[in-house]
Amino acid sequence: VSQQILTIQTAIRRNASEVELIGRSLKLNPSIGIFITMNPGYIGRSNLPDNLKQLFRSIAMTKPDSELIAQIMLYSQGFH
């Protein structure tokens, strides 16, 4: 999988219109996005292999504070 993703990423950087994967030539959409989601609390989750991890940037997401968001929205509408 990591080799195929690397092939796609390389083709995008070269502005190629096609990419060859598994012996097939495929049209390449330059606005493609490849994402991997990980659930740290999920039972049975396994870590990504290092060669796949190197192809992606890590980001962290947190649960939004709904109360704070609602408070700011109300303040912005003139409620105090």
What features would you describe in this structure?
- The protein is of the alpha+beta class.
- It has three helices and two strands, in the order αββαα.
- A two-stranded antiparallel sheet has the order 1-2.
- The longest helix is centred in the first third of the chain and has 12 residues, at 2-13.
- It is elongated.
- The termini are far apart.
- The relative contact order is 0.13.
Count all strands and give the number: 2
Sheet with the most strands, sense and barrel status: 2 strands, antiparallel
In whole angstroms, how far apart are the ends?
54 Å
As laid out across the biggest beta sheet, the strand order is 1-2
Topology as H/E string? HEEHH
Helix percentage: 25-40%
DSSP helix count? 3
Q: What structural class results from the helix and strand content?
A: alpha+beta
Low-confidence residue ranges: none
* Global shape: elongated
Strand content: 5-15%
Mean pLDDT: 88
* Rg: 20 Å
